[in-house]
Backbone:
DNA sequence: CCTTGATCGTCAAAGGATTGACTACTTCGG
DNA sequence: CCGAAGTAGTCAATCCTTTGACGATCAAGG
């Protein structure tokens, strides 16, 4: 607590914030607070790293990559399924696909038995591009994961999945 | 792998995606891949929960709350320090504060020895509002954390902080 | 002193993403 | 067979945030 607030960096800010909150709002749970702050911060740093080193240089937005990634792995899909799996709105998919189609990475075709639906699929060029991009994306993921031992990595994944499948997550169904 | 892609939900998509990627790109690290996917997904669900249950109902954006939160805990601060601690650009702080000042939650004053700088501080109303909001925000954090035992919570925080302070994080210094 | 370089906050432009409305289509009950 | 209700994708409007540029200001060296 000897730091003046202006001198704090983000990590010491978390400690400082938890201390002050305990003093002012004793009803808060400092462990849950630290969990929320740290998790949010780490995820932001991860996405920023992916976006700035892998995807922006290829002219893709983070959302654009997510669409390509889902189509790459889950094969040709109707637009609404892409939205669900990528965690975005149907309107966002619609807008992103407009660009991806113009760039020759994705095709839009009619589905046989439902004239409302649109089937999205990667083109050959799209497949090649996303394969190459994910290769590099995963290299960055490995660089992050390397801070932990294999055993720690396993433990961390287990805990994150436990949170993801817990009751709080079920109550907050994001864009589903 | 018996599921057809269209039937996948997000969790089974992760399993499916990892299996397919291993087949197509053997050089990928499946553990790092699962870590990245799960961490990103969980953080998105968390922020969505906070924003939709606590902050949007109060008329605040997620960014607006982050500015108030930093000012609440780190006292009066110059604009650039708020940007750094809240993890956003100086321009974003400038824009958000315009609204917060109009709503009577934040004041902008000159700092004595530097006529360029602007000191930001919470008003009485701002202090009350953010205290009340964070109370509820932390209640949501507690609901999430309750999926884990205290020991698991401690372990998870330790692993997240290890990632946050590791070399990969140092290389990707987000917005400053 | 004064000039060069850096820093502060703001603005304009651009891109992303959400919500809500709308049209087209499908489905289901009577 | 028909009408009501629900669903798919798109568009318009709105908001948020980043980048790059700018004028104002500060700091340091000659």
Residues:
């Amino acid at each position: 607590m000897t730091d003046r607030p202006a001198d704090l960096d983000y990590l010491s800010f978390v400690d400082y914030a938890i201390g002050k909150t305990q003093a002012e709002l004793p009803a808060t749970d400092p462990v849950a607070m630290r969990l929320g702050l740290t998790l949010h911060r780490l995820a932001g740093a991860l996405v920023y790293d992916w976006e700035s080193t892998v995807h922006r240089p290829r002219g893709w937005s983070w959302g654009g990559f997510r669409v390509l990634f889902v189509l790459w792995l889950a094969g040709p899909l109707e637009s609404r399924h892409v939205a669900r799996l990528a965690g975005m709105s149907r309107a966002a998919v619609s807008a992103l696909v407009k660009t991806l189609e113009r760039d020759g990475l994705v095709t839009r075709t009619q589905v046989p038995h439902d004239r409302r639906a649109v089937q999205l699929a990667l083109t050959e060029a799209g497949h090649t591009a996303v394969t190459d991009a994910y290769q590099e994306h995963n290299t960055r993921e490995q660089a992050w994961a390397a801070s932990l031992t294999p055993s720690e990595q396993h433990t961390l994944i287990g805990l994150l999945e436990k949170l993801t499948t817990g009751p709080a997550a079920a109550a907050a169904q994001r864009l589903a």
